[in-house]
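Field: sequence (string)
Field: structure_tokens (string)

Example rows 1 and 2, in order.
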Amino acid sequence: MTRRTPLSRTVRWVVLALFAVFFVFPLYAMADFSTRNLIQGGRTLAAWKNLVRDDQLYSAITISLALAAFTVVVMLAVLVPTMIWVRLRAPWAKGMVEFLCLLPLTIPALVVVVGLRGVYEWVTYFFGESTLTLTFVYVVLVLPYAYRSIDAALSAIDLQTLSEAARSLGAGWATTIARVVVPNIWSGILSAAFISIAVVLGEYTIASLSGYQNLQVVIVQIGKTDGTTSVAASLATLLFGFALLLLLSLFTRGHRRGPGTNHVAQATVVAPAPAPAPAPAPLATAQPGAAAS
């Protein structure tokens, strides 16, 4: 085991301090600006109170949180069973599924909006022109991040053995996925969900080009007339994303320290009892007459 020297510890803390200053100082500057009274001087929390009082901003926050929730639900409902089925029944399709899931990383947002224009004519026809219809685009947008998280979690378990054990005990496929596989990849599912929420809350380009009003679009519009409220809303979004990542880090660390037991009933194999040894044959008793003859 390699021991850390005092010099290496000092270098480590210096590097961590530099990174902390690099990340914390912009947040401090945003907090300082959002609490200034630009007209009368001093400090005020009016910009932060506007997050709830401003009807347009409050509506945008509600819609963005609903978008994040719907995106996570649809993404998990589509991606988790598909990845489990591919690993168990169609391993030859793993490369194709991975390629399709990672493809959105290579397509610019402008191309996505132009390409989906014809599709969204039918979406708005069936579901109306609500901003919540962006859920379908955002599901595609978060696929690369969600796929990597769930794929890493599935690679860490013996999926074939778990599914066969559950099936041999009489569980159906729905029960196997919900009660055996999902508890064992829970950390990967949470990671995919939290990263998807952060991506959805920070998305601007697709919503703006599509003509919808989500949180980031409204922040830009408010920033043209009220800079402090716009900065306060941006800082609140960043802090919310940091809080999600911190919760994810704490959960995964606690999950790794916990007992690594699989959530599947452990069947006790009872060895067959050995057959009883045959009783020894009784010794023949010699008859006196026979011995004499």
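Row 2 begins here:
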Amino acid sequence: MTTTLHKLWKKEAFKTVIVIGLIPILVACVWFGMPKALNTEIYPVFAVISGSMCIPPNECDAFSHVFEKTLHVGDLIVIQGVDANDLKTSYPNSDIIVFRNPQVAVNDSHANIVHRIIDVVEVNGKLYFYTKGDGNGYPNVWPQTPTQSKDNWTSSAEDPTSTYKGAISEDYVYGKVVMRIPWIGSIVIFLQQNNIIQIGLFAIIVIVIIVGFIIPLIKNKTTNTTEEPATTQSTIKEADNIVKQFEEEQTAIKEPTMLPDTDEETTYQE
């Protein structure tokens, strides 16, 4: 078994298949593994597309105020699922959470909201979080005590307990923001808004695979096929020479050695 694998590994075709096959496997591992690792019901990496968390207003981009303890359009954020009781609710040092708007369908791109917790209340054993965007209600923005522009969420007809007096139920909270990466989200947003660029990138990947793996493989195969007849002919010729030489040696052994005839009389001396 080991010998067979060793022989296969020496073949370029086998290596190419392995490399190409590993790419979708790695992508699938990341895609399905991250929600499990970070304990979230949804994919835990987002690009921030709303300016509701930006401070000050009208300067919300990935390049302004990079080190503020809030979020900007173009940030890439990572969330982690946690127990609702473990969320920090003491404003202004409270957690920024990602949750679903009960009024919006799950598969809608605007369903997920990223806001900060400003207060919490417990009703019938369930926690409800009051939230607000850090930049909403200017000039009453984070970290000032919020007096206006608090979120006022409305329950869906399917689930009347999804909200309580404008607060969102813990059942709709996906997790808290645990990492913020400036700028990178801008690339994601750009690609999402430009389908042609996505197609172009996919085409480039395909071209790289063809040029880097498939074409060299075909060339190697063609070269081996071209050299094979010449090698075979040379081997046959050498074999013929060996056989011919062997036959000549055998013939020489079988033929008797002839002594020359002489008519001279032998002279004996008395």
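free_text_note (row 2): The radius of gyration is 40 Å.
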